[in-house]
# Entry
Amino acid sequence: MGTYGNFNLVMREWKLGNITEAQAIGQILQLLEELEKRVAELERITKPPRATNTKPDQPKNGEQK
# Structure
């Protein structure tokens, strides 16, 4: 994660002149990279399993679809 830990701290440091624009952009990109990893992990663990039966349900005897 970026040195400052969150977007608001990066913006504060930039507005105060403590970091340059390039440093702020770099920090924001690091934060974005970390968020991307976290979202991917959440999607991985919360995604429902895919159904193994891909054929549509067959009608029962005498039924029509």
